[in-house]
Task: inverse folding
């Protein structure tokens, strides 16, 4: 049973996956009025455990062979690390990033040549120096971003960029993503963008019209039934309604329940807490 559970990664997000497929094929898709699809991005919103990351990873896997990029934002500390992660994945996708590399090298050489001895500078001047340094970092990040995205769209494939865990970023990172990186991505028609989070970035015009936000609903009874069937748990085939109600259709809670049920079946009812029914109903 454990092997079966590992082999199946259930996801019931047909509507969202269809929307993602239409978006990435927007040059050939038209809406009901015959206009070409103008959206470039989908934002997925919902509470913890609703399956945002699983959905985003599914989109990434479906486009991995065509040049997709996945960023786990909570694990990335600063803006330039975001760009470096994209660059490393580009190399893995056999996409050259010469403009990005040359820009990064130029800034590194300039930084090595610049030395400020604050011991010989009055306090007010040192403050100006710090402000200038911050401004320089902003300009450097913008230049690196422009160079990298220019390299990505130069590839014959159409980049698909997935950003997960937006709400877990520190405020400076969130500001940069919403005000700089995302508009930069959306300004390039070749790029499709997907963002997931309990909170989502707020964009300004004209970029708001390029993005659609989808709130992920809980799984319904049919999805729970399909999950039971995919796991091959015969003893639960008639319990989908009760299981869905007890766990509110939250995928993370359902997964925990099924894993515990599988462990109980493997070890025997006397060895696992709650026995095969998990004891949650009581």
Result:
């Amino acid at each position: 049973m454990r092997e079966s559970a590992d082999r199946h990664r259930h996801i019931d997000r047909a509507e969202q996956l269809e929307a993602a497929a239409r978006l990435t094929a927007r040059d050939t898709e038209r809406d009901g009025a015959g206009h070409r699809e103008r959206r470039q991005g989908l934002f997925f919103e919902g509470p913890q455990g609703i399956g945002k990351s699983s959905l985003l990873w599914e989109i990434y896997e479906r486009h991995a062979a065509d040049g997709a990029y996945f960023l786990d934002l909570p694990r990335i500390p600063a803006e330039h690390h975001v760009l470096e992660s994209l660059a490393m994945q580009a190399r893995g996708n056999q996409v050259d990033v010469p403009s990005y590399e040359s820009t990064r090298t130029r800034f590194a050489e300039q930084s090595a040549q610049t030395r400020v001895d604050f011991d010989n500078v009055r306090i007010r001047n040192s403050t100006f120096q710090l402000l200038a340094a911050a401004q320089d970092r902003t300009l450097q990040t913008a230049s690196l971003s422009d160079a990298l995205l220019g390299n990505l769209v130069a590839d014959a494939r159409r980049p698909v960029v997935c950003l997960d865990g937006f709400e877990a970023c520190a405020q400076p990172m969130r500001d940069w993503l919403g005000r700089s990186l995302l508009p930069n991505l959306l300004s390039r028609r070749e790029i499709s963008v997907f963002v997931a989070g309990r909170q989502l970035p707020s964009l300004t015009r004209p970029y708001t019209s390029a993005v659609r936000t989808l709130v992920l609903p809980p799984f319904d009874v049919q999805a729970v039934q399909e999950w039971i069937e995919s796991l091959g748990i015969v003893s639960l085939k008639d319990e989908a309604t009760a299981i869905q109600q007890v766990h509110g259709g939250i995928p993370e809670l359902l997964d925990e329940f099924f894993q515990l049920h599988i462990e109980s079946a493997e070890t025997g009812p006397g060895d696992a807490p709650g026995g095969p029914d998990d004891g949650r109903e009581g």
Summary: Confidence is low (pLDDT under 50) at residues 1-8, 116-121, 127-135, 271-282. The first strand starts at residue 41 and ends at 45. The CA atoms of residues 34 and 174 lie 36 Å apart. The beta strands are 41-45, 68-72, 160-164, 192-197, 211-215.
